[in-house]
Design a protein that fits this description.
Order of helices and strands of chain A: EEEEHEEEHEEH
Number of helices of chain B: 1
Largest sheet of chain A: 9 strands, mixed
Shape of chain A: globular
Largest interface: A-B, 31 and 26 residues
Helix content of chain A: 10-25%
Strand content of chain A: 35-45%
Distance between the termini of chain B: 18 Å
Structural class of chain A: mainly beta
Oligomer: heterodimer
Strand content of chain B: 35-45%
Largest sheet of chain B: 6 strands, mixed
Order of helices and strands of chain B: EEEEEEEEEEEH
Number of strands of chain B: 11
Radius of gyration of chain A: 14 Å
Structural class of chain B: mainly beta
Number of strands of chain A: 9
Radius of gyration of chain B: 15 Å
Number of helices of chain A: 3
Distance between the termini of chain A: 27 Å
Amino acid sequence: MSLPPSRSKGGALPAADATPVLRFRAGGVACGVAAGAVAALSAPEADAAHLAALLGLEGADGVGERTVALALGAARLRVRVDGPLGLDSIPPARLLAAPAALPAAWIGVVAGFFRDGEEIGLLLDVERLAASGERRSP
Amino acid sequence: MVQAAVGIPGDGEGGGPGREASESARPMLVFRAGCHWVAVPPAAVREVAVKGYVTRLPAAPPHLAGVTLVRGRVVPVVALDALFDGGGPASEPVPTLPRLVILEDGAAELAVIADETAALVAIEAPSVEPGAAGRFLVAQITWRDRPLYVVDVPSLFRDALAAERPR
């Protein structure tokens, strides 16, 4: 995923085309990953960590839960996510710049933000997410 | 902490320690953040909005509630109560919809959750160094029999948005 948070003030991130994204929720938060990094979708598998736990976002509700297999380069990760799941094509106008004052360390695995109705959705960086998953694995 | 005189312009109540606010008193926007009443200079307030969705961030510290959308901009949302040393007593009931007080410091902005907004209050506070009363607080006064904390907004930005919080 190549959507680094812009440090410019306000407005949308520069992008020529719409970004295909798999949308879902984790811990009540709207999330998405680049659709091209999705290798498989399946019924919830107990041995896969829940994304909400991986992100430290309490409140996974398990509604419409699925397991998503992500693969990007050498990065691999299987996580459970909450529904509703859907493919979305996010145009540049819905991509949002990260606040300039926000420390990068607090953005963590978030590659960028997108407008999801009245909410802000988190675009997750698959490689950083996989690295985070590896660190948490026993 | 520094003591100061307070009064509400126009209502003649005063509400503070019984002193009339003088002509040198400055208006401050007063609101409640959790269990603390705070005052900020209106010049630092970009707008007050009804609190909408706040999206949590995975790696954010406890005082950062998340980010919210304000006129198409992503704005960090701060739970000011969590920045006070020792927290405080249980929060008062919320009689109105929570608001967001959007503060600005240069080009940067952040939103503070306001469980209740009061009014513009004229406050005569002695000039003190930012942080003299502890980090982002420059004075503590009595308002309507409650402690009211005067916030230095640039110091609040530094404290709330510092990757490592000062102790």
